[in-house]
């Protein structure tokens, strides 16, 4: 029997151990492949909460915002969303925004003008949460605003109303005297006057964003006063259904409402918020988001546009409206191009000028041709 060489065995064992260690180190330091490096983390979930002033089933403003939320979820798999509806523009809104921040939402979106002060207060308490306020004017370090230049589409739909009125009286249902509402009534009137200088726009205030019963009463009162085309800045299609019942025409707002009054609605403006929400979330994920006051127009990816025309609108006039739309997109034309006078005849925008954004964002006067007074806020 041969005598075992202990030194040789020990040398062999050490060599084997060293080989295993080197192999392990080599595997651990192996760089990731391109496929591995491009895969996002499945654990990175972005929570986005929406606060709505009305019900998601209003088929108007809140419906359009909620369609944007659904678009966001369908286009970004790492996003989860939640929403709270029918939240009034009162101190209770501050409680809702606070609750959503405490629940760990990364982004909180308030969709109504009257949430402004409450969102400012809550944003300061939760500096690591991104807040976005639709149609607002106030910002903080982590609160931005977004809106679309819906007055551009309002001008175009006003052209259609001015073309097809026979009484030269247009009716407009308005909720509150905010700059957004006034701006849209003015743009609508200017568009109508551009094809029919005899037009008068009568305004009735509903004092609510969404109150179908009041909207029906207001619509009937406008028709009784001679209006044969109705438009609005409220949230339900009730006005159009009333118009159809009474045999007059209507202009939609926020979403395509033609299915509710196919014999009445000629055209409408439509808001498309989804792409903006996707871009917002991507900025937050990439840590490139910063406080801004976004105000996109027709040229900005369709965030605001007009719906397809009713068959009642003849093809030649459709072409006229579409040509004006292209002038807006190209910058050749602006709906608030001067000369523009207010109800008293005072020139507000001189010939050759256009209203600057700061004027439009704080506008508190009606253009000549609007019949009605602006309620005190």
Helical residues, percent:
40-55%
- Annotated CATH architecture of the largest domain: 3-Layer(aba) Sandwich
Specify the structural class. Answer: alpha/beta
What percentage of amino acids are in beta strands? Answer: 15-25%
Shape by Cα distribution? globular
List keywords for this structure.
alpha/beta; 377 residues; 7-stranded mixed beta sheet; Rossmann fold; disordered N terminus; 2 domains; globular; 6-stranded parallel beta sheet; 40% helix
Quick structural gist:
The protein is of the alpha/beta class and 377 residues long.
Describe the fold and architecture.
The chain is an alpha/beta fold. The protein has two domains: 46-149 and 273-296, Rossmann fold; 150-270 and 305-371, Response regulator (Rossmann fold, 3-Layer(aba) Sandwich), CATH 3.40.50. Helix content is 40%, strand content 18%. It has twelve helices and 15 strands. The strands form three sheets. A seven-stranded mixed sheet has the order 12-10-9-8-6-7-15, with helices on both faces. Strands 2-1-3-4-5-11 form a six-stranded parallel sheet, with helices on both faces. A two-stranded antiparallel ribbon has the order 13-14. β1 (46-51), α3 (61-75) and β2 form a beta-alpha-beta unit. It is globular.
């Amino acid at each position: 029997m041969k005598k075992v060489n202990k030194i040789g065995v020990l040398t062999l064992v050490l060599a084997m151990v060293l080989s295993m260690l080197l192999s392990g180190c080599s595997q651990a330091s192996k760089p990731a492949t391109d496929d591995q490096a491009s895969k996002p983390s499945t654990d990175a979930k972005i929570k986005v909460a929406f606060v709505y002033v009305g019900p998601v089933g209003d088929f108007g403003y809140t419906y359009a915002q909620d369609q944007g939320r659904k678009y966001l979820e369908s286009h970004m798999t790492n996003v989860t969303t939640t929403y709270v509806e029918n939240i009034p523009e009162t101190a209770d809104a501050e409680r809702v925004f606070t609750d959503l921040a405490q629940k760990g939402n990364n982004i909180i979106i308030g969709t109504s003008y009257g949430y402004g002060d409450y969102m400012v207060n809550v944003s300061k308490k939760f500096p690591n949460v991104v807040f976005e306020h639709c149609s607002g004017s106030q910002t903080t370090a982590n609160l931005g605003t977004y809106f679309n230049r819906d007055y551009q589409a309002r001008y175009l739909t006003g052209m259609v109303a001015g073309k097809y009125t026979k009484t030269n009286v247009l009716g407009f249902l308005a909720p509150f005297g905010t700059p957004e509402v006034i701006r849209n009534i003015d743009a609508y009137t200017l568009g109508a006057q551009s094809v029919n200088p005899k037009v008068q726009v009568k305004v009735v205030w509903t004092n609510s964003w969404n109150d179908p019963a009041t909207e029906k009463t207001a619509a009937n009162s406008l028709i009784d006063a001679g209006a044969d085309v109705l438009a609005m800045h409220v949230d339900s299609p009730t006005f159009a259904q009333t118009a159809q019942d009474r045999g007059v025409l209507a202009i939609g707002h926020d979403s395509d409402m033609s299915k509710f009054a196919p014999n009445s609605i000629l055209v409408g403006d439509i808001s498309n918020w989804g792409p903006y929400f996707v871009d917002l979330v991507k900025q937050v994920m990439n840590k490139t988001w910063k406080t801004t006051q976004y105000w996109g127009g027709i040229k900005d990816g369709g965030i605001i546009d007009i719906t397809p025309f009713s068959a009642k609108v003849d093809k030649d006039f459709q072409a006229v409206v579409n040509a004006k739309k292209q002038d807006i997109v190209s910058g050749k034309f602006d709906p608030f191009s001067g000369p523009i006078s207010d109800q008293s005849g005072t020139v507000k925008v001189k010939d050759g000028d256009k209203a600057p954004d700061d004027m439009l964002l704080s506008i508190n006067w009606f253009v000549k041709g609007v019949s009605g007074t602006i309620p005190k806020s």
